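lol ok so funny story. i was supposed to be doing the assay writeup but got distracted and ended up predicting the structure for this chain instead. priorities right. anyway since i did it might as well share w the group, maybe its usefull for someone
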Amino acid sequence: MKVAVVQHNITWCDRETNFARLAPMIGDAASAGARLVVLTETFATGFAVEDASIAEEVGGPSSSFLASMAQTHNVWVAGSCLESADGGDGAPMVNSLVVANPQGLQYRYHKIHPFTFGSEATHVRAGQNFLTLDIEGVRTSLFVCYDLRFADEFWKLAPETDLYLVPANWPIKRQSHWSALLRARAIENQAYVVGCNRVGEGRAVAYGGESMILDPWGADLAVAANDECIIYGEIDPGVVADTRAKFPFIQDRR
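and the output, tada:
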C-alpha cells in the first residue's frame, strides 16, 4: 500500500483556508497512487485547544472534509481535529484522529495523552481506547503527537500492528526528540511508522516538519525537510511478518 504524508502549514482557526490549501495536495497524492493520505494533527485549525468554540460536533466541517476528499479520490484520508466531548465530567473537547475510508465512513481515535506541559490537558479530555484499523490489508494503529512518548502503549499493540500513524504538531525546539522517538517506535516494534508533522508557526510556536516514513528496521523510506511537501512510502505487511519471524524479540518482552 502506498502512503502519502502531506506536510503542510496551517492558518490559525481558518478552516476554509486550510481546506483550500489541502484539497489539491490530497488530489496530487491520490493521482500519484497513494491509497492512504495522512494530514497533521489539528489540520484544519492549528493547535487552538484553549478555544472551546473551535470544537466541532461529530460529522462537523473538518471530518466532513476528510470524508469528502476520501470519496472524491477513492482513497483513505486521515487527520486530527478538535471535537466536542460526549457529556459527563471533564474537559469539553477531544482530540480526534479521524480516518475516512473511500466510501466516506469515519473511524475515530481520541488522543489518549493530551499534552500536560501546556493547556491541552486542561481543555482536551483524554481518550480511553486504542484503535487499530485494517486499511487495505495493513493493520494500522492510531496515535497522536504526545502519545509518541509512551512506548509501552505502542508495545501493547505491536503484535497486531503493521503500521503506526502519528500525526502531530511537534514544536521545532524539541525536533530531535520527534525524529528519535519515531525511529525508536519503528525499531522496537518491528513495524512501519508514519509521522506527519506540520510546518510554519501558530501562536508564536514554530514547527519543524521532518515528517517521516520508516520501515520495520527504523530505516528511512522518506523524510521531509521543513517546508510544505508530500512524501511517499510503500507499506508491505509481508516485510513486517518476515522481520519478526527472523528476529522474534517482541515475544521476549516482560
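The chain has a mean pLDDT of 97. The domain at 2-252 is CATH 3.60.110.10 (Nitrilase/N-carbamoyl-D-aminoacid amidohydrolase).
back to the writeup now i swear
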